[in-house]
Every structure is written in structure tokens, then in C-alpha cells.
Amino acid sequence: ASFLDEWSFDQFRALLNRSNDDPNIKQLLHQDNVVIFLHLLGCDTNGHAHKPYSSIYLNNVKVVDDIARRTYDLVENYFKDNATAYIFTADHGMSDK
């Protein structure tokens, strides 16, 4: 299910790229107090399906870590304002029960 996480990131990157050619998107993205939400579902899906100590789940954690890094780089390079707050959250933990 990590492909779902990659898809979410790809959609966000595509939106930023489209804004270079679409002034309406660019205007929306450059308003004050914009919230961008990426729903990365892969870890939850793989954790329930394969349990949290499986190689599939642990690999998905690495995928999400990499997406967080790439998202940070993408946002910082796009907005160049040094004024972005990042919030990471989850709906619950994961056990093998």
C-alpha cells in the first residue's frame, strides 16, 4: 500500500508544477494561511494487513520518512519564504495484536 503514499506525494508535486502554468492555482497557493494536507494511508493499511513488525510495514515507514523529506524540500524550494510549519499526526499507534 506504500504506492498510495507515493501517489499522494506525486499529486501534490503535480499541483505545484501545474501552478507554474496556471495563475489561478498559483494565486490560491500563495494566499495567507494555506493548509496543505497529505493523507499517507500506507502505514495504516500495511500495519493492519501485515502487522507492525513485518518487512512490508517497516519498508512503508521508510517510504513515509522519505516522502516527508521530499515534501519538505519541495515546499521549501517552491515557497522560498522560510515560514512553513509542518505538523505530523496519526490516528493511533500499531500493535501486533
Automatic annotation (TrEMBL):
Cite the annotated pathway: Glycolipid biosynthesis; glycosylphosphatidylinositol-anchor biosynthesis
Question: Which keywords are on file for this protein?
Answer: Endoplasmic reticulum, GPI-anchor biosynthesis, Transferase
- Enumerate the subcellular locations listed in this protein's record, separating them with semicolons: Endoplasmic reticulum membrane
What the entry lists under InterPro entries is as follows: Alkaline_phosphatase_core_sf, GPI_EtnP_transferase_1, Phosphodiest/P_Trfase
An example of a GO molecular function for this protein is: mannose-ethanolamine phosphotransferase activity
Per the record, membrane topology reads: Multi-pass membrane protein
Q: For this chain's UniProt record, which GO biological process terms are given?
A: GPI anchor biosynthetic process
- What are the GO cellular component annotations? endoplasmic reticulum membrane
Give a single Pfam family match. Answer: Phosphodiest
The EC designation for this entry is 2.-.-.-
What the protein does? Ethanolamine phosphate transferase involved in glycosylphosphatidylinositol-anchor biosynthesis. Transfers ethanolamine phosphate to the first alpha-1,4-linked mannose of the glycosylphosphatidylinositol precursor of GPI-anchor.
Q: Which family does it belong to?
A: Belongs to the PIGG/PIGN/PIGO family. PIGN subfamily.
Task: Specify the protein name.
Answer: GPI ethanolamine phosphate transferase 1
Originating species: Nymphaea colorata
